[in-house]
Specification:
The structure holds two protein chains of two kinds.
Chain A lengths: L1 E3 L3 E6 L3 H12 L4 E4 L16 H6 L12 E4 L7 E2 L28 H4 L1 H9 L17 H15 L26 H12 L5 E2 L9 E2 L5 E2 L25 H7 L3 E4 L2 E9 L2 E9 L5 E11 L3 H10 L26 E5 L14 E4 L18 E6 L20 H11 L2 E8 L8 E9 L5 E6 L4 H20 L4 E4 L43 E3 L14 H21 L5
Parallel strand pairs in A: 1-12, 2-3, 2-12, 3-9, 4-18, 12-20
Antiparallel strand pairs in A: 4-5, 6-14, 7-8, 10-11, 11-12, 13-16, 13-19, 14-15, 15-16, 17-18
Chain B lengths: L2 H15 L1 H7 L1 H13 L29 H14 L14 H9 L30 H20 L8 H12 L10 H17 L11 H6 L31
Classes of the chains: A alpha/beta, B mainly alpha.
Chain lengths: 570, 250
């Protein structure tokens, strides 16, 4: 017995950053919006007990309940895909605010190069720089076109930073708030990179340097540097997230409602239009249909792709023929870096998720790749997030992993170790894609999403080159022993790497090679919008949220336009 | 750390958070923090002195999972070898790690409550991670029995009465995947055991490990502190008396 509810103007699936942004903008424009969120309500008041590494960082308090739904994974098509039974490589979010609640807050704008990567790479290095197996493509939008939306997202979030990156795209306005505190640890990196001829600058941060009121009238508090950001919520309301900004903005209009414990299982469509969504109330087991004029998928990369697949919307990507667009260009992030062991003790337990300094000299096409066997690169940063004792047991090479020697070395080095790391670009490959699993199902009987992914030669070459560069920086910083990151081999879903999954529902200039247009409007179903890092045709050399936020504002503008005029927006 | 300091830091928190407490946290929470502050003493931890925090009333610690004392003794000796007592401070036993693991096995951790445990089950490749049909509770129970069995086979006595180097030999055999286990690889059990040991040594003492916050004290981790905004620019390394998250409850 499925109960059909009253129709609304807009329904969003998931209420994190993207559901919040779409909700706020559309509700402000007078549209009636419902956000369906499978998790529970939460707010700053729920984070008072958050300085608990075991509960939040190790047992994943804020993250998705995998007993209900996960994905399956294989490295290649010859392997049997098996469920990701435990969280590991990336941390899926759940509940109000989504993964944006437990982010660190690094807020970047992808480089101008990223948006026109195919054109610019071919222009400079010819068509054969990468083999045809790499599915490089332009995004169907330029940096300049996206700049106003970056500006809006940064103002909403109050981003703290300094306009000193010589490689960044041109900004219409300075950062809304000044950069965070430059600590002694950051200064070591600043000095070393300057000595080496690079240009260090403060990492753009959503942990705010000062109290800030955003254009919607929401206030974000000043960061207290308590050292609990990643995997945690902020008990001060000082790490900008959806539940302290766009969600209250949407609610204030009276046009917005969040329905909790609702797990959407299908996008409904009829005659080329989406008619609404079907969802399960996870507390009662009842099924509902929420009809809407516009349906917006605003859940995580994985679930946005899965919902399109199980709803039969769009053509599935086929790696044999290259036909189909849904599921293609899945990318991840390549993480070169180096660890340094120092003589002196440092206050490594103090910090904030986005407290850091970065160089962009080795990112994008900011350096010449003529003699290199890869394209793109990475932003390379030192961060001082506040390191905690269960997860941080650094030992020099050749130390046993348990026993007396391990205990001594891990305790000695805990406060004497620094890391620098790159957020490395990930270039799509024809064998890396998302599809539906034929065997495993979620708690509602819907197939799990299947991930087929492995690192490529491009990835290994990029990693090797930038790990070497990172090692040099760490040496210049004065480390007694430097341990470069291990060369990458096969992608392993067990150890945590990064929650920067991208692709699968990519944007572009043509329905031939993309799922949505540059308003994130579905090419085949014009009242369906799909928003998120799934829109990235490749992953750039930064954390994704700044670019995702900009795309969400772009989509919101498109939805409002569409509600007036209808039809394709491009 | 004294109670006065606790009170102060809470007030600092309420002051600095300003808008958060006023607009978002709400009066109910503010009220309850203040009320608890004057009515309740620190009862956190295990009955030992909590780094200056007062202990009032009885706190009971006990086994919730292991019913057989020998099983628990095998666990205790094994985790002590992984994280031994030395001149820096207590080892796993002194930190309460065996109780931490026992208590965790009795709850969501032991029953893999938030993990996907539906079949079919296949061994898979190492890059695909945990593929056992066994829960952690089942793996620990089997693994500890196997360790005892292996001790008897090699040394004619139970694991708990072995010499340290004999225990290490058996642990190493598990680590190197040389022991046959059912439904799970012995190296996987070893990884779980090692990880759980570190968790018990360094988790907040509310979980029955890290007794007296001595794990944190050895490592120089101050636990739950409200803020470092006034210290973060210091060039000197700072030793700060640790504090448990339980200090937020009173």
């Amino acid at each position: 017995m499925v109960k059909t509810l009253d129709k609304v103007d807009v329904v969003t699936v998931g209420v994190g950053w993207l559901g919040g942004i779409i909700g706020a903008e559309c509700a402000k424009a007078g549209m009636k919006v419902v956000g369906i969120e499978r998790g529970r309500e939460r707010s700053t008041a729920d984070y008072l007990m958050v300085h608990d590494e075991y509960r939040y960082a190790i047992r994943y308090e804020l993250m998705q309940d995998l007993s209900k739904e996960t994905i399956t994974f294989r490295n290649n098509r010859k392997m049997r895909a098996l469920p990701m039974r435990q969280m590991g490589s990336f941390l899926l979010g759940e509940g109000l605010g989504g993964a944006g609640t437990h982010w660190n807050g690094h807020t970047w704008r992808f480089l101008p190069y990223d948006f026109e990567i195919k054109t610019l790479t071919e222009k400079k290095y010819g068509k054969d720089k990468l083999s045809a197996d790499y599915l490089l493509q332009d995004w169907g939008i330029t940096y300049d076109e996206l700049e106003p939306y970056f500006d809006t997202f940064e103002k909403t979030a109050g981003i703290s930073g300094e306009d000193k990156n010589p490689f960044a795209g041109k900004r219409a306005n300075d950062f809304p708030t000044p950069p965070m505190i430059k600590t002694p640890i950051l200064k070591k990196f600043e000095k070393a990179t300057s000595n080496l001829g690079y240009t260090p600058f403060m990492l753009p941060s959503a942990n705010l340097s000062e109290t800030y009121e955003n254009p919607d009238g929401q206030t974000i508090a000043a960061c207290q540097y308590c050292g609990f950001c990643e995997r945690f919520g902020c008990e001060y309301g000082a790490k900008t997230s959806a539940e302290i900004t766009v969600i209250p903005t949407a609610l204030k209009t009276g046009n917005y409602q969040v329905r909790f414990h609702g797990n959407v299982v299908e996008v409904l469509k009829e005659g080329g239009k989406a008619t609404g969504v079907r969802y399960v109330d996870t507390q009662t087991g009842e099924e509902f249909i929420q009809p809407a004029d516009v349906v917006v998928l605003t859940s995580y990369v994985m679930n946005n792709a899965k919902l399109l697949m199980v709803s039969g919307i769009g053509e599935m990507y086929d790696p044999d023929t290259g036909r189909g667009t849904l599921g293609k260009n899945y990318a991840y992030q390549i993480l070169p870096g180096a660890t340094g062991f120092f003589d002196e003790q440092m206050n490594v337990f103090m910090g904030a998720g986005s407290l850091g300094m970065t160089i962009d000299d080795l990112n994008g096409d900011n350096y010449d790749h003529s003699e290199l066997d890869f394209i793109h690169g990475a932003s390379i940063s030192i961060t001082q997030p506040g390191v905690r004792p269960i997860q941080t047991n650094p030992v020099p090479p050749d130390t046993p992993s348990w026993g007396a020697e391990f205990k001594k070395a891990s305790i000695y080095n805990y406060s004497r170790t620094l890391n620098i790391g790159g957020q490395g670009a990930s270039i799509p490959h024809k064998e890396n894609f998302l599809s539906l699993d034929p065997d495993y199902k979620d708690a509602y009987g819907v197939p799990l999403l299947q991930l087929t992914y492995n690192f490529t030669e491009q990835d290994r070459n990029l990693h090797k080159y930038l790990t070497e560069k990172s090692k040099t920086i760490m040496e210049e910083m004065g480390a007694k022993t430097v341990m470069p990151g291990n060369p990458i081999t096969d992608y392993d879903i067990v150890p945590y790497q990064t929650t920067h999954n991208t692709g699968g529902t990519i944007m572009g200039a043509s329905p031939d090679d993309s799922v949505v247009n540059n308003y994130l409007q579905h090419w085949d179903v014009d009242n369906l919008f799909v928003v998120g890092a799934g829109n990235f045709p490749h992953n750039g050399g930064y954390n994704p949220t700044g670019t995702v936020g900009a795309l969400a504002y772009r989509a919101a503008e498109g939805i409002i336009k569409y509600s007036k005029n209808g039809g394709s927006l491009v | 750390m004294s109670k006065d300091n606790n009170g102060l830091s809470r007030r600092d928190f309420l002051k600095t958070t300003g808008i958060a407490t006023g607009a978002l946290v709400g009066g109910g929470l503010l009220g309850s923090l203040i009320t608890h502050n004057v009515t309740k003493e620190n009862v956190a931890g295990t009955g030992k002195n909590q780094g200056g925090g007062e202990h009032v009333g009885d706190v009971f610690r006990g086994r919730m999972f292991f019913t057989n004392l020998n099983e628990f003794n095998v666990l205790s000796e094994a985790v002590e070898r992984i994280f031994p007592e030395d001149d820096l401070g207590p080892g796993a036993i002194g930190l309460g790690v065996p109780y931490f693991i026992d208590n965790q096995l009795a709850g969501n951790y032991g029953s893999n409550a938030k993990e996907y445990m539906k079949g079919p089950f296949f061994a898979g490749e190492s890059t695909q991670g945990y593929q056992s049909r066994l829960t952690r509770a089942e793996i620990f129970r089997q693994g500890l029995a196997k360790m005892d069995e292996e001790a008897k086979k090699r040394f004619d006595t139970g694991f708990a009465s072995l010499e340290g180097n004999q225990m290490d030999e058996i642990l190493t055999a598990f680590q190197k995947n040389e022991i046959e286990m059912k439904g799970v690889a012995s190296e996987f059990f070893f990884k779980l055991l090692r990880q759980a040991t570190l968790e018990g040594a360094y988790a907040d003492p509310i979980y029955s490990g890290n007794i007296n916050m001595d794990g944190w004290r050895m490592k120089g981790f101050p636990g739950h502190q409200m803020a470092y905004i006034n210290e973060i620019e210091n060039e000197e390394y700072m030793k700060i008396e640790p504090q448990s998250i339980s200090s937020m409850e009173h």
